[in-house]
Amino acid sequence: MTFAGAMRMAARQAWQGWRNGEFGVLLAALFVAVLALAGVGSIAQRTTDALAEQSRRLVGGDAAFSSDDRAIDDARRHAQRLQLRLFRSVELASMVGSRTAPPQLGTLKALAADAPLLGPYSVRTARGVQRLARPAAGTLWLSETGAQRMRTPLGGIVEVGGRPLRLAGIVVEEPDRPLNGVELGPRVILPLAEVEAGGLLGPGARASWRIAVSGAPAAIAEWVKAREADRSPGARVETGDDLNPQLRAALDRAQRFLSVSLVLTAALAAVAIGMAARQHAERHRQIAATFRALGARQGDIVGLYVGTLAILGGIAILAALLAAAVLQQVAGAWIAEQLGATLPPAKLLPLLQGALVGVWILVTFALPPLLALRRVSALAVLRSDLRTPSPPALALFALAMLGLLALFWQAAGNAQAATILLGGLLATTFVLGVAGWALAALVARAGRGGSGILRYALLNLSRRRRLTVAQVVALGTSLMALLLLLLVRTDVWEQWQETVRGDAPNRFVINVQPEQRPAFDAVLDRLDYASVGLSPLIRARYVGASAQQRGRPAPQGRGERLADREFNLSTSDVLPDGNTLKAGKFWSAATARNEFSVETEFAEQLRWRLGDKVAFDVAGRRIEGTITSLRGVRWESFTPNFFVLASPDLARDLPATYITAVRVPQGDTALASALSQAVPNANVIDIDAITAEIRRIGDQAALVIQVVFWFAFLSGCLVFVAAVAATRRERITELGVLRTLGASSAQLRNAQLVEFGAIGAIAGGIAAVAAAGIGTLFAQQVLDLPPTWNWTTLVAGAAVGMLAAMLAGWLSMRAHLHATVRETLGVAGGLSRERLPGGDSPYNIRYNAPPAGPRPPT
């Protein structure tokens, strides 16, 4: 058969299969998988791009550099040589007061005459909300909380460093305010000329100059590299990677969950496609046998069925890509409207990835059953009991597993997570297979001792042992994946709620001296506020061996910047709340000697390992010890957390101040006012901006998570349909026989419910236990979350799975429960009857007919 002839036959078979719905489940599953990966993946990509753009806005450009005025001049000249756009500002602390509020220490941000790189500020003025580049001469702006602290109306006078300026606006949006920036007292934005005129930048002023730049990526990279080479104390380089730890942890967790959800959706769809392809191959076994009897070669059969699969699969993939393009536009517009933000334009990469995964699913899950048809014996025309030899599909199976491993690895971000997911999936499949086989064996014995319709239902499970095992595996796997997504989704969602809950701390208090702790506690008692407890804060700089001296690669990017700047140490007698031990052993306060505990990601960035000797300089004093434990830190808790903890014996005599977190009502100024009297050197830091940003990202991720979950649910439903359809023809035939023998519709219905109830109970129970185990490992090892599920959820999920199996079985057969014997057997015969060559049959194969002539005598 020529290639053109094979493709014509494949096209006719594809058209006929499309018309009679023979490929319905296969094409629907493929459509859902590609649509989820391409459409939802595109939405997730746009969300990620939006967050990257938000990171640029928080930095104020593509990159920024903060240092003293000398280093800033070098950075400015270098930016000008590279033809980068730049924006300069300076931040410093100064006393701020008004006629209605006492003087207090505030944060000043003075803007140069350059134009903001990412657009003007949104400011509420007497004329409404306006977009302005900077305050006019003789005026200033206040942040929302700063205006509340000053208790000054628009047009009122605010004194900055003894210089009266008119309040011209309240800042609604500050595009270049980093999330790690804090509000130390009232935040004031004013022209740089006003600060210079007030003499606030004179000798001895503790000012931090900042320059933000934007331009070509290569020029930005060169500029950042030069700035990172500046080793002066206090110098700091910021890029989009330097997100606040709370925001970074929340964002990474949401992205990992979204990616894993999409891969599980694709895996469920692949199971449905494999089952549907197997059923299609079973229905076409006698057709393939007829072709072999008529002289068709194995290559002809392979060409026919592979061509049919390629045509229909290509149509389904193209349709899914078109639907994905529409979905990401519609859903993206809806998400943008819900969040009040604009998403960046879509990219082609998610669509290409969806199409490639769709082709991979077809090749590894749908193709093997069809390839088996080339080995069918011609005797199968006369003997339906002959089995089709299994194809040598080990290579395809290995390719499928490697593909799943790669997808899970990419989605979860590391090999450990991929092993948990894929290993859990394979282990669950094996246990389900064993359980299905045991079920068939046990009910065979139980059925022999029973009577009536119950005996028939139980023996049916034993007679169709292979199909029973397949149904248990398919239903259990899909239910396990859905329960896993539901449980982990609940963990992630509750973690978001925990992050932005109403009683989460929204103020940090720093610079409390050791002798002021009683006075601080008294202020909290008087205001009826609760803190998370005071933690020591020790300023230190790393002075130990470098990574190169340890024979390891030098830290790059953020890790290099972390190693060169001052950061905060602390100490604790016990492992702090919100910290989890990842490696090593946390010390006992009574026996600890020169030990350090380091946050895991921080250690990775600085190339530190368990057992390394590290040293720090604290106010001219060198302390040295061994890293004896690595910790995971829940930064979203908004409580004082530290990259490095020192054992109590190391920190005992070191100079330290204290820090804590407190929850106050929105817009509260009572805490700052009370502390200004009782603990005047303490500073109250407002972190409402950080929690608001995390809440916005959480809302955005929650919307996408909901969409992904329903795609996974639809894939699971398709697996149910495919599993039920696996025995539909045999069941219809048996219904006809039983109706002939006098069985009533109620008896037939009860028999179906018993069969599917037994399958659903076994599959649901194992799926619930597997989801609990895999979900616990995944939440703890991949998402760094404590599992929040309970056994009630799992029992309910198992019960729902059993009821869903019974409902699916009843729905698939209900049309035949009340049909006549003739109608039932007619339908069963129609399911197995295929037209052979002639008429409008798609199978138009030329074969050698016997020579014409007189018929031999009989």
Keywords:
disordered C terminus, 55% helix, 858 residues, elongated, alpha+beta, 24 helices, six-stranded mixed β-barrel, six-stranded mixed barrel
Mean pLDDT: 75
Oligomeric status of the shown chains? single chain
Per the principal axes of the C-alpha atoms, what is the gross shape? elongated
List low-pLDDT spans: 830-858
> How are the strands of the largest sheet arranged?
2-3-10-6-8-7
- Biggest β-sheet description: 6 strands, mixed, barrel
Report the total helices: 24
**Helix/strand/pairing category:** alpha+beta
* Rg (C-alpha, Å): 35 Å
Quick one: how many beta strands?
22
The percentage of residues in β strands lies in 15-25%
Instruction: Quote the distance from N terminus to C terminus.
Output: 36 Å
- Please bin the fraction of helical residues: 40-55%
Care to describe what's here?
With 858 residues, the chain is of the alpha+beta class. Helices cover 55% and strands 16% of the residues. The chain has 24 helices and 22 strands. The protein has a six-stranded mixed barrel. The chain has a six-stranded mixed β-barrel with strand order 14-15-20-17-19-18. The protein starts with a helix and ends in a 26-residue tail after the last helix.
Characterize this entry briefly.
The chain is α+β, with helices and mostly antiparallel strands and 858 residues long.
